[in-house]
Structure formats: C-alpha cells, structure tokens
Write a structure and sequence with these properties.
Chains A, B, C, D: One of its GO terms (molecular function) is malonyl-CoA decarboxylase activity. Four copies of one chain form a homotetramer. Chain A is α+β, with helices and mostly antiparallel strands and about 450 residues long. The first copy, chain A, folds into three domains: about 160 residues, Up-down Bundle (Butyryl-CoA Dehydrogenase, subunit A, domain 3), CATH 1.20.140; about 140 residues, Aminopeptidase; about 140 residues, Malonyl-CoA decarboxylase, catalytic domain (Aminopeptidase, 3-Layer(aba) Sandwich). Helix content of chain A is about 55%, strand content about 10%. The first copy, chain A, has 20 helices and seven strands. Chain A has a five-stranded mixed beta sheet, covered by helices on one side. At the A-B interface, helix 1, helix 5, helix 6, helix 9 and strand 1 of A face helix 1, helix 5, helix 6, helix 9 and strand 1 of B.
C-alpha cells in the first residue's frame, strides 16, 4: 500500500505541532532584548545550515513575550533592521550614472529592509509560516497605537503576497467527513452567522443541500485561510433564517437544486488581512459546483449589508433635511420594538427602506469612488451583479440592528463576470437588475426636492 | 470515509495537468511580440480577478515559442519591464530628506523591477510555479550567450528564494510503493550513478538495505526537487560497485545496519539552480533514519571527486615542475589501460595518488578560499568531516576518468556538525581524520623541495 | 499525485451511502410477502449476474418493513428456507454406504439451510454487509419472544464468523483528526462512561495523555465495531473520576507515562453480538502502544464491576443467613444516602465491601465454572490478572449503584498473558495479586461459621 | 491533518509483509508431521486468544514444506480432518425424528469437515488470507495427480466464496500514479497480451486513451485479484496490433472517444480459480466509465478465440469428410507460412474461415450446452452479444496459431444485458448481430450436403 507517500507529505506538519507544543514554557523569563539578539544572530548566520536553529530559537522567544515586550521589539525592528543609508546613497549614485539593470539591482537590494531577510529566515523553520501570520496579527493589533509600525507591516505584506500566492493555495471541500480538528476551526472562525454548536455545524455540512469549501496553504496545514458556506436551493433564497434552521430542508437531493446560494464567507486569519483570496475562492467553488451538479443555474449570494442602519440613521435621521417628512416619520417607527410584528407598519417601512437601501448601495461611495458598503464592494468588484434587496431577509437581532433586516442577493452570471468586473474596475460601473434600479428611482422621490443624481 | 479531504487537496494538481495538456497546440503561430502583449495586459489588469486568465494565456504563448523568440522575449523583458527611473529619482530625493521608513519603502517599491510583479502574477495560475521553473531553465541556457539576462535571473532568484522557502518543502520517502509517475522521474534525474532500468531502481529502493528521500514542493506536485540515495551497511563502505550491484546484499534486515551511507544526491530541476536544498535534506534524512533505525551509528557519504583527475593532469603532469620524478613516472602509468589489472602497479599508483588527493581536497582552494572540489565544498560546508579516501572506490569508466577511481567518505558526526559548520564558515577550516592528514603529509613529500604549506 | 488509488479504494463506500439514501421511500407499501418473493427470486437467479439487482431489491423492501412484518418474514425464513429433507435422506444413505469425503460433502451441502445461501447473496450488494448486521440486530430483538428464530440466528452467526474474521479487521487510532462522522459514532456507542458532548470527547482524545483505538471492517466502512479508550498515567490509576475530568491533566507529555490504563471498551454493533473482537483489539493496542511509547511498563484496566451490588444485596442482605451480624449491619448503611460524605462510616463500609468483592470475583461462578461477573470473565479469559480492588473508584451515581463505587484493575503482564490464558481455559484458574487474595481471606471471615471454600 | 486515520487502516498490511519476511528460514527442517501437529494444536486451542500464535506457526511451517511434504499433508488433511461419522449418525437419527431446525443445525454442524474450522482459524493471522490462497494454488496443482484432494478443494471453495464475497471487493483504477509495487504485479499477471516492459505498461495506462481497473480485497492488500484493460477509441476496433502499439494514438483526448474496448481481462490469483469476479468487474467498470466519460456509447470487447484453430484442424482437416473440397483446399493453405503476405490468398482464406468461426461460436457446444469457446461462454453469459468477427484482428504469432488471427467483438448493450443474460441462462440462447448470422449461414454452405442444423 502506498501510504508512506502521503504520510510523509504531512509528517512535517505533525512534527510542527509537536515542536510547537514542546517549545512553550521552559521556564526562563525572556524579553524583547533576547529576541533582538536572536534575530541578529539569525541574520548573521550564513543563511543556511544554522539558520533553522536560530530561527526556531527566535520564534520560541517571541511566543513567550507579553504585549509590552512585543511592542518594544517591533519598535526596534522598525529602527534597527531597516536598510543602510550609505549603501543606498552609493547604489543610487552608481545607478544614476548608467541607469542599467545591474546598478538597479544593486539599488533594489540596498533598499530592501533587513527585516525582509529576517522574516524569510524565520520562515525556514517548520511551522514558521503560521507563527509569522500570528506575529502579524499581533502587529496589526499593536499598530493601532503605533502608526510607525506601518513599515514593518509593509514588509510582512510584501512577503505574504509571495508566500500566499494563489498558485500555492488548495481548495478543499469541508463536510462531515472532515477531521474534527478542522471543523472545530470552522466553528471558531465563522464570522457572518455564528455557528452555535456541533449540531448547527452538522446541519450546515449536510450533503443533501449544503456545501462548504475552504482554502488551505500547505505550509500552514490544517488552519483554513477562508471558507465559504453554500446552500443548494430551488430558486433564489430571500431569507437567511430558513437556511440557518437546523430542522427544515428545502430539498433532499442536491440534484434537485437549481441555485447555489453563498450565505457566508469568512476570513480565518487576522494575520493575513489584506492578502485577498475571496475572489479566487468564489470562482473555484463555482467551478467545482458546476462540475458536481450540472443542474445548477444560478450562483448567487445571500449577503448582509453591515453599516446600512448606521448610515440610515446618521444620514437621514440626524440631518432631517433632505428626507420627505412622511418617509421620515415612517423611518422613525424603526425605534418601535414591535414593528416586525405589525404587518401594516412593516409594509410601510418596507416601502421606504428598500428604496433607500437601493440608493445606499448604488450611490453612496467611499473616497475611491467605490460603494461605501464593503460587502457590495467585494462582490461587485468580483464581477457580480446587484440583483435583489430582500425585506426581512435576516430578522435576527443582529440583522435588524445592522441592516434593518435586509439581505442582498448578488448574482454571479458566469458569462458576464469578466465584463462586469472590467467595467467596475474601469469606472466603478455597478451592474444591477431593473428591479433594484426601480427601487433606486423610488428612493430618489423620498427626498424633498430631489432631482436625481 | 474521509477521502474527500485529501482528494481535494490534490485535485488542483490533477487539474493542472489537464490544463497543461489542453493548452498545447491550438494551431496559431505566435512569437515574442504576442507574449509581450500578454504580459503587458497582465500587468495592467487589476491584479486579481482577471489576472489568472491573462497569466494562463501568457504562459500558453511562452510554451509555444522557439529559442529565438524566447531570446527576444527575454531581451525586451530586461529592457522594458525594468523600474521607472523618474520614480526612483523622486523617491530617492524624498528618502534623502527624512531617511524614514515610509520614504524607504517608497524607494524600495520604486526600485523593484516590474518583472517581479509580472512573475508573481504569472505564478497565480495553477501549475504556474512549475512553468516558471522551466522558464528559468531556458533563461539559464540562453544566458550563456546573453550575459545581460543576469538581471532577469536575479528577479527569478529573488522570488524563487521566497517561494521555495525550506518551510514549504516536504520530505517524502521514495520506495517501491511510490507512484510510478514519480519513480520515473527518479530514474531520469539520478545524476551521480545512472539508473539503468526499473530493475536497477527496484534494487536501490529495496527496504532491506536501501532508503531514498526526496524534497517536494506542494505547488509543483510530483516533480521532485532533490533526492538522496542511502545504503544501509555494516561499517563504512569504501566501494560503490557492491552498492550498485543489483544482486548482492550486505545485510537482509535494516536493523542490522550500523551505517547509513549517502551514495547519491541529485538535484532535479535545472531551473532551481542556486536555490539550495541539499543541506536541509541531508539533515532531515538523518533525523528520519535515526528515528526509524536507532541502531545507526554512522552517517557518512560515499562521494565522487569530480575534477580530480583533470586537476591531477593539468597541475602535475603538464607543468612537470613540482612533482618528484619517481612519483611523476608512476602517475604516467595511469595512461596504461591495464593498470587496474596489475596489482603491483596499482599499489604503486595508490601510494602516489591518494596522498595527492588528500592535498587536492585540503589545500586546493577556489577564489573564495573554499575547496576547489565542489562535492567537498558542499559536505564540508554542511558540517561534515573529511574522513577517508578510498582507493578503487569507483572502478567504473566514469569513476576512473573523473577521479582515478577514488571515492571519498565524508562523515556527519551529529554532535560536531554545528561546530564544524561554524568553523568552516568562519575561516574555511576543514575538519579531517588523522589518516587523511597523514596522507596529506605524505603528499607533501612527493614534491621536489616541498617544504609544506 | 497518487490519490486515485486510495480514492477509489473508498469510492464504493461513498456510493453505498448514496445508494442507501436513494433507496428509501419510493412510496409503495410493502410487507413480508413482497420480501419473501424477492428472496425467492434471488435464490433462483443464477447467483451472479442478476444477483446484485435482486439482492438490492430485497434489502430495500426489508428496510421498509415494520416489526410485525419483520417477525412474519423471519417466521417464514425459519420454515420455508430450511434444507430439503429428501435431499438429506438420500445424501445420508449414500454417506452411510462409503463414509467417504465425496458423500460427506454432498451431505454437508444438503444440510446447509438455504438461508445461508440467501444471506451470502444478500451480501453481494454494496453496503449489504452492514444491512445484514442491522437485520440481525432486529432478529435478536424479536427473538426474545420467538425462541424458534434461534436457527436463523445460527445461520447469521455461522456466516458472520467468516465475514468478520479477525484477519479482515483493521485497527485505527481515533483522535481529534478523525473525521467527525466517525467521532459522532464514538460518542453514540460509548457504553461504559457516557460521553457528554464534543468537549468531553475532545478531552478523551487529547494526544497528551489519552489514546483511543477502534476496529473497522472494510465492507462496513466508517462504522466502528468496537473501541477502547486508554489513559496514559504515572502509576496505576485507582479512580475513574480524575480520568473523566475534562480539566485536569496527570501528565502533559505521553513520554512521561509508565502506565496505559484501559478505562472503556465498548462494542458498537448489537447485530454482531457474540462475534468477539475485544481480545484481539486489546492485544493489538498493547503492541501499538509499546511501539509508540517504549516507556510504558504497565498495561492495566480500570474496570467497573456491574452486577456486584445486586449480587451483594440479593445474596447477603436478603438471605441474612451467612453473613456476620456486624458486617451485615454495616452493609445496611449503604442505604444511608450520606455514607460517602461520612469518612468514618465510609471506612467501615470499605472494610466489609472490598473483602466481599474479592470473594465475589474469585468465588462466584456461573454454570460454566467461570466468574459470574462478565467483565472479570472477559479480562481473565484474555489472560489478565486480578490486580486490585479500588474503594471509591467510581463515585458517580451509576458507579455507586452498580458496584458500590468499586473499580477493578486487571493487569496485563505481557510475559504472563499466554500462560494465564491457558490456565484459565484449562480449569478456570484465576491469577490474582496477593493483596486481592488477602482481601478474599478477610472476606471469608465475614461469614458466620465460614470455614472457607 | 487526518493521515493517521488512513495510515493505520493499512498499517497492518505493512506489518504483514514484515511478518512474512521475518518468518522464512529460521533453519530447522520441518515436514508434514510438524504441520499436522500444529494444526491439531490450533483446532484444540479455545479458538480465540491463543489461536493467532498457533495459526502463524502452522502457516510458517507450511511455507517451508516441499511438494512432497505438502502432498502428504493434504492426504492426512483429507482423511484425519473430516467429520466424525458417529456424530453424524446420531445427529441424523435425531433429525429424522422431528425434522426441526434445531436438529438440522446439529446435523449441519456434525457434517462440516473439521478442515473448515481449521481454515477459518488459519485465516485469523495477519496475512493469513493470502497464504491460504497460495495454499490452494498448491492444492490445485497437486490435485492433478490426487483426485481425492477434491474434498479439500471443496472446503476451500466454500470458505473462499464467503471471504471473497463481491461486497468485500474494491475496484481501483490502475494508472501511472499507482504504486510500482502494484504495477509490477500487473505486468506479471497480464495473461492475454503479454506486457513486454515498463514502457509497454506505461502506454497501456496512458490517461489519454487507456483505462485499467482491478479488483482488490482488503485482507490481501496490494495483490490484485483480476484486472481489465480498456482502450478508448472512435468506433469499434477490429485489430489488436494498433492498440498494443506503444507509438500510435487513435485519440488524444478521452472525451473524443465513443467506444470503450475491453481488450484484456486477466485473473491474477491461481488460488482463486472458480471464484468468479470478472462479471462484477466488467459491470462496475462500465459504470465508472460512463460516469467519467458521458460521451461513451459503445462498450465492447476485442477478444481472442483460443482453441479455434485447434478445433478447425481437428474437426475439418482431419476428418476430411464434411467440408466442401474447395473450402478444404483453401484451408490447407494456412500451412503456407506466407499466406498473410499474399492478399489474394488471404482474401480466399477469409471467405472460408470467418464463416466457420461464426459456426464455431454459435453451434459448437460443450456438454452443458454452452459454447465450446471459453471466452464466448464468459461474455455471452454476462449478457453480451456476439457482434463481429474480425479478419486479421491479431496477427501476432500467438494470434495466428490460436485463432488464425481472428478477433471477436462482444458488445455490451447496456439496456439488453439483463435480458440477454436471462435468455442465455434459461436456454443458452446466444444473441448475435445479423452480420454474424449471415456469416454462419455462409458457413453452413461450406459443408458437403449440409442442410443446416
């Protein structure tokens, strides 16, 4: 039997865990100065034979530092592990003379902060990649109070972009046959609609009408990078609660589905923030689903609209200027805790809120000219179309609070993705359905004296 | 059963093969200008959504170019995909002013040749990494006549060092249960002692007294990067022929071995030249062997000494100055094709050649002050010790021709590796056994008026 | 990559699940007569090409029967699918004549109930083996009121003994990397110390100081047959509560353990009752543990003593004849719900109960002359030694109720297992420690006028 | 990573190999009497705990016996390990009285030769199943001179039918990613068109237009039981040489194929003769192919017709009675070694031989009324149709000698398989194409005064 082949493929991952475990807690107190010393030794080693030992030692020290020591370590890293100005000056002078590749290369090398070589060498250890991801997680947290750590962050970002190149990522189906050690992380990392317990998870992985896929990186082993949850349905879903319900089944056989609804996309590693995979994951999952279930016709999201209510309140309620008085009066009913139970009131709110949501998604832009809403930015940037705004799409406390219960369908029309994406990139054109456009027009009329943008 | 998990882990590798196969030969003639155009489109795309399509397209074109077009492509790559001098000047000016990290980072970014971003984007495609390795293989070949491609090579090297970081490599045991697709490559890539056929390979993988390990990279799938062949023996072996003999067995049970003899280390990917793994592989293999076979006491190589005979002839025979006339007369008998069959003559040659070999290994240095012999450089640099010089260690035609039949044992003494390595790094100190030192002293006396270095 | 090999190895198991799922509920009502008809068609088919279809059909009908129909099916199976008396008579007459092998074989074939061929053919379908195990589960349940089903049960037993031959079983380590689908079954089937939830399970599989192994059968896929839970400890454990405690750790590193304590052995498949694997599993697990952790010196159980309290009450309390009055008075204090909290009372109870437990284990026999206690029968029959009786070894409600809180250590001394086993088999000799023997002697004195058995 | 799960699944198989290897050759001479003694000890052991030791010991002795000792062992096995006549007489007497299930069961048990229990216990050891298959291989060989071993063979057959139940078999795709240890066996076991070397094998496993599938049994590990080779073609192939040609490709993309041509089915284990899997394998392979390649329309064999030329010569040439003189004269030209190179002669032979082949396949029957030709028997029995007789279908020396170069296409029409099979079983009706029927009619006219059967 050919087990040894695969077995050894993963043996080092297991070894890593062993190493990680052993390393912690051998007693001695350490602080950032020990770590800086270890980093210097690592950079001075010849870069190959003794590097692993030095690198392991450095990471071991790091793992035992408290936030204060970490902060001081990053401070020194920013200052002492930069590039050598004299080298740069000399290299630039030479470059100015001939403007040739060789001189450029020397200048490039001179400009590279020594931190980058340091990070590359720390990455030599088994398990090092993951520990560097965790280190950046610390860095991002501490950076809030230390804007000058941005340079260190740039070094991490530069290297992570290479190390987490999409060509190195592996997509894996997650289901009830996945090892518990991984499922446990899925529970932990689900960020959109919290997974309550293993029973909830089991429902979300039920082969009959659910799918889940994650990206993994071989050097990080069983830590997922990002995952997406899919419901197989008949028709486009307009509410999240039936999907999250652990008891009800829309279909019993995946072949009966015509729609794959992406209802949760969760990034797992804070330390990889800004290294984006979501776009690649969605595309690959669409491919896998099409292959497995040729009956699927629609690929759509059922997405939240975080920030909408806040925007609604700040923009319209506070200023009280622009909005039509009647609409405004209706909106204020949102503070009535019973509006959801009052069909008539609910209907009136619907008539005001959905048009405003359409305007929010289509017209409200950030400084780059892209939609203010981050979810819209993500899907529209991927080439999706703004398809439908669903009233009472998420009636959970969180759903009501974040987006007055609205949920959005973004549609991935396979033949149009490329074109939509290009248009969006070029001039931020948003492709949307006629129904959303109608809503938006109705929204315009809710303003006093509004003549349309 | 939990197959899907592993299955999907490798699914994209299979898909890659499919892609690679499909891509070739859709008929239209292409040249370097099409490729340059595709590269520009790739760099101009926003880097995410449409990149994979552009990158695949570019790689597909590349695969269909002839050497002439490749040369012209690399020429343009060197010139047109460099950095922007104006950007550099501006960034440098800003940097000069404050010497701060932010300015440095801008300068670093400005100096990075656009080629690097291009290569990163080409790497986005499934299978892209391997195709870039192959592209560098072309580059190294064409570079012989185009020294100016060195800048491009530097870009490749810079990125490969990140992508092929030791932390991403996976060591795997190769044996008779390994898939044939991989074994076939082992046969192809063995560079030290050619594998004649599958029967020869089978002998070399026999669990009873052989081991073989290779490094793999997850994004390259079943292409090995480097592998090492090990014979388990009783005592240190002094001849390669019994090891290569497919019929004879020194031991029948690996537990009976006290020695692991590394008799072949082969780099597989020309395109990864200069990205070194051998040192890491040897260390990891020593660990795996110790764990599997606690009885092992000696870790040693049985290594060739390529270039020795050439050195011998050029240095001593040609110049005819330094060498003792009697020794010289003996050496000339090497041209007698029957010396191997003549015990008495063979013994006389032994008395001259081994001492000279000891001097060759210990005293002949390259410009860096390291041993002239590349194999010695590799093992001594890894922390091994020069242990024994074996007369008639390799009596094959190649062995006789390259190194007058000598083979070398380099010994890896686990407790000394680190120290030996440090000494070697610091001042190129070579640790050697007393017997080799004695030989070297005898060698000195073979020179007329030699007073010793 | 060599995934296809393993992948296909399990593909049919996956297909089975699909098949099983599809099969249920196509609407039509069926009863035992349909099943009997399908069984006849199966037996009449030529046994190869069309068998699978017929067999699948029959199993599908069976899966939809209620208990009443199943009972009637088994009734007819007992009567109509027996052997042909005329064939038997003829074959016996021929056999009487020459007493040769050929005639014997004919007689043997004639005597084989047609049910056995029926079961063999039902087993042709993918997933059939498991469905037959489930069918026997039904049979055993219904047999309570239908003693005449014993003949059918004999046919199942005969075939299962072949199909579940130890040579076909595979032992697998169960840990936190095991697929959730299997872990879920471990939770469900644990019969000794109930697993409360996934958190409890996680603790029981913690690599640091726990191990778990199960037997699987390739044709049954991910349904475990039996599994054993092991705690790695320093010294022989005398209490179960610390082991079940999800928070406390006796050791942090498995290498630190000198003892492997088997604290739970659970049979999973009711339908395999009487087909014993436990003995094989324990032996194989001991081997695996010794290989992984050479420091282990003791292999011991921490076992319950179900039935002891019932025996105690029925034998001594009710008859009130034999027992010493003082001891009897003490024993009655067991009904005092607070005895556990009263150290003095507890100590007095200890002085009476442990000696009686020793006698119970050593002297109370069933009709076969083996220990009355089933757990003792199992371990002593496997070659273990009765080592220690632990006071307050299990102070859970169940532990107190079943065995007044006692837990037993049976010791597996590797060098003695074979000999102990042989002695036990020959004349039911029980090997026990001197401390247990002392207890037993003390127990004897608790009887009025007892002079020893 | 979830490797341990699969890893352990196969660990015992590896252990088996180790065991098997160690066992051989510990020096002492053994003969059948030692083996008989070991078998008695095994049967007398209580059947569980000590059985494995006894069974391993017995198999170890067996492996060291020569044919003479084996013969004597089987002789005693036939005589001394039969059933007890007194038991049988008593059980039969009891059975006669009440004819009930309980009595029947006792009689059945009494009739079972003790050999069967012996074989079941030998099967307890790891690797035992395979050693028993090898033992039966010996038995079948020695049986040629010892017809009385038939009883022992019947015991093996009875148990093998249970152990190798189709439900336990696993189909696996064999390709270039299969471990070499398995491919080596494919080379060894190919019985229809010999595989010359690894290059030949590689061609036969080329994903582009070849498939290969094998049945495995979990307890036998990597020993295939039977395998089938498939060529993907456009149209039904009529010649084997282009398929065996390692250089030529009919198609480059499996999706382009409309036909799956089974050109080799090889049983691997002589010791499993009579335990048939071929029928199941073909059906499962058809399913797998349809799923992978929905474009496939035809499932057909390209089969040899072993025995045809012998039949031709013995029947027509020797008797010289029935055949038309002209046809006879033509047939005699077969002895002309150059007929293949002579187009005109070849054409004349074609006109005689193919019609006779049609008659041979359709009209020549064995004692059971089935086709004389074993390959025809197999495929027609499986529900295939006799589709085409190909002139110069196999012009290898063997093809010419066995069947005058003819090759047969048996067609598996999915919708008709079941019906064809039933008809064949009922009255040996052969379904054939109109072209074959025409040939057969023409064949009739080749006889003097033939008026048709």
């Amino acid at each position: 039997m050919n087990m040894s082949f695969l077995q050894e493929l993963f043996s080092n991952i297991t070894q890593r865990e062993a190493l990680l475990r052993r390393r912690t807690g051998n007693g001695l107190t350490v602080d950032h100065s020990h770590l800086l010393e270890a980093c210097r030794a690592l950079l001075e080693s010849d870069g190959e034979a003794s590097s692993i030992t030095h690198a392991s030692h450095a990471l071991e020290i790091y793992s035992r530092l408290d936030d204060n020591s970490k902060t001081r370590f990053f401070e020194r890293l920013g200052k002492d592990f930069s590039a050598d100005p004299r080298e740069i000056d000399l290299a630039y002078a030479a470059y100015r003379k001939d403007r040739e590749n060789t001189a450029l290369q020397r200048l490039f090398d001179a400009c590279e902060p020594r931190r980058q070589e340091l990070l590359r060498r720390l990455n030599l250890t088994a398990g090092g990649t993951y520990e560097l991801v965790r280190m950046r997680e610390d860095l991002l947290r501490l950076m809030r109070d230390h804007k000058d750590f941005a340079a260190i962050n740039a070094d991490f970002t530069h290297l992570f972009a290479s190390w987490f190149n999409r060509g190195f990522l592996v997509v894996k189906r997650i289901d009830w046959n996945t090892p518990a050690a991984i499922l446990e992380r899925i529970i932990r990392y689900e960020a959109v609609h919290k997974i309550r317990d293993w029973g909830d998870l089991r429902r979300r992985l039920d082969n009959r009408d659910r799918r889940c896929y994650a990206f993994f990186h071989p050097a990080i082993g069983d830590e997922p990078l990002i995952f997406v949850e899919v419901a197989l349905t008949r028709g486009l879903p307009d509410q999240i609660q039936p999907i999250l319900d652990t008891e009800s089944y829309d279909i019993e056989d995946p072949e009966a589905a015509d729609t794959a609804a992406f209802f949760g996309i969760s990034n797992c590693q804070v330390g990889l923030r800004g290294i984006s995979f979501g776009n690649f994951l969605i595309k690959q999952v669409v491919q896998e689903l099409k292959q497995e279930l040729p009956n699927l016709k629609n690929f759509v999201t059922l997405s939240p609209m975080p920030g909408f209510r806040k925007w609604l309140e700040s923009t319209y309620l506070d200023e009280q200027v622009a909005l039509d008085p009647e609409a405004l009066a209706t909106l204020k009913q949102l503070e009535n805790p019973d509006w959801l139970q009052d069909p008539e009131l609910s209907e009136r709110l619907n008539a005001v809120i959905r048009p405003l949501a359409a305007r929010y998604l289509l017209k409200e832009k950030n400084r780059d000219g892209q939609p203010l809403n981050p979810v819209a930015r993500f899907h529209l940037g991927n080439g999706a179309e703004l398809h439908r705004i669903n009233w009472q799409g998420d009636i959970s406390a969180q759903g009501l609070q974040q987006s007055t219960g609205l949920m959005i369908n973004y549609l991935y029309v396979l033949d149009n993705i490329e074109r939509n994406h290009e248009q969006y990139i070029t001039d931020h054109t948003i492709v949307c359905s006629s129904s959303v456009r109608d809503l938006s027009r109705r929204g315009r009329k809710l303003f006093k004296g509004e003549t349309g943008k």
